């Protein structure tokens, strides 16, 4: 049986959130209920059987997953806006064993089944005969400086169950790959290498900000969903940050207004309010340097 220890990074009185290691990557400890062992989640992910029309929306945390989930949902529902919490419409694979999860209905869900995940490519569920019946994966990547700031703000919003440390401590952990889902660069490159696979669509958060309408069209074509220009325009309008904030109740964790929020600012370049020149230099050398030669580049301001 695999060992999945509880991990919590410490430095003096500062602590990270509690994590567990599953399939060689870290996830928040609260993704498991008290009655389930980490091995059960390992087995669930490893043995999960996909269907040809399954769609996974994937990213490193705080990189636009919520945004793309809503776009995909609206594409499949011709621009409909749902008041139902997004997490009940698009199921989060890594949280499938939580008591409040609807995972027991996964096998009987009507197709197409929509899933959210933060798994790297090698760990994402795949069909037993992937070459003949591949499901589809939409991966969205965000520049690591904004992703790190957004991740910190989100984890800190959990209070005593989250990050009990200043931004500088979290940034250090992010660079070293000691946060959830390990190193950002390893994660995005695992998917970037498969960007030409016919069942993988690789998107960038910054590109969606620059031209949302074109990307809604790209996503709908990837999903083989023929939509009129009227519906494309409607989805584009409804899936701007301003448009989604009109239905903010759908994007609250547990439906609680006072709790952590999946929608914060929706900006490109907010990192500049948090990075010192020294930290920026570390990110360039220890995070972005590893992208050189891959062809993967990011916008850091618009």
From TrEMBL:
Q: Which residues form the Sulfotransferase domain?
A: 52-295
Q: Which Gene3D superfamilies match?
A: P-loop containing nucleotide triphosphate hydrolases
**Could you state a single Gene Ontology molecular function term?**
sulfotransferase activity
Answer yes or no on keyword Transferase.
yes
Q: Which InterPro entries match?
A: P-loop_NTPase, Sulfotransferase_dom
Q: Which family does it belong to?
A: Belongs to the sulfotransferase 1 family.
Identify this protein by name. Amine sulfotransferase
Q: Which organism is it from?
A: Stylophora pistillata (Smooth cauliflower coral)
């Amino acid at each position: 049986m695999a060992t999945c220890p509880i991990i919590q990074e410490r430095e003096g009185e500062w602590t990270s959130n509690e994590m567990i290691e599953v399939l060689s990557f870290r996830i928040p400890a609260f993704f498991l209920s008290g009655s389930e062992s980490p091995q059960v989640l390992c087995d669930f992910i490893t043995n999960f059987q996909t269907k040809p029309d399954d769609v996974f929306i994937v990213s490193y945390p705080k990189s636009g997953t919520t945004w793309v989930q809503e776009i995909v949902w609206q594409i499949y529902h011709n621009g409909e806006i749902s008041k139902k919490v997004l997490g009940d419409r698009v199921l989060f694979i890594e949280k499938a064993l939580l008591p409040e999860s609807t995972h027991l209905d996964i096998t009987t869900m009507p197709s197409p089944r929509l899933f959210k995940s933060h798994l790297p490519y090698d760990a994402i569920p795949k069909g037993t005969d992937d070459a003949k019946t591949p499901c589809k994966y939409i991966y969205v990547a965000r520049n690591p400086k904004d992703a790190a700031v957004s991740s910190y703000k989100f984890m800190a919003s959990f209070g005593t169950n989250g990050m009990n440390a200043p931004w500088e401590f979290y940034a250090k952990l992010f660079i070293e790959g000691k946060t959830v889902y390990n190193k950002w660069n390893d994660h995005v490159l695992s998917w970037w290498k498969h960007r030409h696979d016919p069942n993988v669509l690789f998107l960038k958060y910054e590109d969606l900000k620059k031209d949302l309408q074109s990307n809604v069209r790209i996503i709908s074509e990837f999903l083989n969903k023929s939509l009129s220009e009227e519906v494309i325009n409607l989805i584009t309008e409804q899936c701007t940050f301003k448009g989604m904030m009109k239905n903010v109740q759908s994007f609250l964790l547990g439906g609680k207004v006072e709790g952590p929020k999946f929608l914060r600012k929706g900006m490109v370049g907010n990192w500049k309010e948090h990075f010192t020149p020294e930290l920026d230099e570390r990110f360039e050398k220890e995070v972005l340097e590893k992208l050189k030669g891959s062809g993967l580049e990011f916008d850091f301001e618009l």
